[in-house]
């Protein structure tokens, strides 16, 4: 997989070395007139949470660096190079999509009194403040990697009571868009499940 993907990428891009490409050329070839395929993320349903919470939770949109704060799917062809998967995109900006799936994961547990987003008028006990640090596929290694920092903050006094970083890395079964997205979705599920179990255990 490594040789075929990198060869196709370098042939399309005509670059080498550790050049940073934030909006560079496509990794997989696609005609300029083709509409991109739209991909979504899932939310874990059965994460083994047994402890209920009487609190009400607010989930703001995660912060993220510009390279992943978009609807484009980040891939790393090798070294320090960053590019985007051609002919494919997320169904929304990635931070907004992760926010929605984190809310959904909390709701799927059936163990929280209420959870919502800013502007929904909930009387909030806790904020779950997150930062997306990585959400990408390393094409050379064939691995999907997701990293998210989570802070649990008392909404009444602004005090952060706990902080944790969640990381998942899973193999990618091929270099197609579907395989890349499946790897990212599996890694995201692990991170979301870990974050929600951690929050409810606090």
Topology readout:
Elements: H1 2-13, E1 37-39, E2 53-58, E3 63-64, E4 72-76, E5 83-90, H2 94-109, E6 112-116, E7 126-138, E8 143-154, E9 160-171, H3 177-201
Parallel strand pairs: 1-5, 2-6, 2-7, 3-7, 4-7
Antiparallel strand pairs: 4-5, 7-8, 8-9
Question: What would a concise description of this structure say?
Answer:
This protein has 202 residues and is an alpha/beta fold. It has helices at 2-13, 94-109, 177-201; strands spanning 37-39, 53-58, 63-64, 72-76, 83-90, 112-116, 126-138, 143-154, 160-171.
Let me know the CATH homologous superfamily of the domain at 52-74 and 88-201: ABC-type transport auxiliary lipoprotein component
- Number of discrete helical segments: 3
Structural class of the secondary elements?
alpha/beta
Terminal CA distance: 42 Å
CATH first level of the domain at 52-74 and 88-201: which class?
Alpha Beta
Q: Tell me the β content.
A: 25-35%
User: Based on CA inertia axes, which overall geometry fits?
Assistant: elongated
Give the number of DSSP strands.
9
The average pLDDT score comes to 86
| Contiguous uncertain segments of 5+ residues | 1-31
What is the CATH architecture assignment of the domain at 52-74 and 88-201? 3-Layer(aba) Sandwich
Helix and strand sequence: HEEEEEHEEEEH
Taking Cα atoms only, what radius of gyration do you get, to the nearest Å?
18 Å
The helical percent reads: 25-40%
CATH topology of the domain at 52-74 and 88-201: Rossmann fold
Largest sheet: 9 strands, mixed
């Amino acid at each position: 997989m490594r040789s075929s993907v990198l060869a196709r990428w370098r042939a399309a891009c005509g670059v080498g070395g550790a050049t940073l490409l934030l909006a560079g050329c496509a990794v997989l070839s696609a005609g300029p007139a083709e509409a991109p395929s739209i991909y979504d993320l899932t939310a874990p349903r059965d994460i083994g949470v047994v402890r209920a919470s009487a609190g009400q939770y607010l989930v703001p949109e995660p912060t993220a660096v510009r390279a992943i704060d978009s609807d484009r799917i980040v891939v790393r062809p090798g070294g320090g190079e960053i590019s985007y998967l051609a002919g494919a995109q997320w169904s929304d900006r990635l931070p907004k999509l992760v926010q929605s799936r984190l809310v959904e994961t909390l709701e799927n547990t059936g163990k929280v009194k209420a959870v919502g987003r800013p502007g929904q008028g909930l009387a909030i006990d806790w904020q779950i403040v997150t930062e997306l640090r990585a959400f990408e596929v390393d094409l050379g290694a064939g691995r999907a990697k997701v990293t998210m920092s989570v802070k649990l903050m008392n909404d009444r006094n602004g005090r952060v009571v706990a902080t944790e970083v969640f990381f998942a890395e899973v193999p990618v079964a091929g270099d197609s868009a579907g395989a890349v997205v499946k790897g990212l979705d599996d890694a995201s599920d692990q991170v979301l499940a870990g974050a929600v179990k951690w929050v409810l255990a606090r």
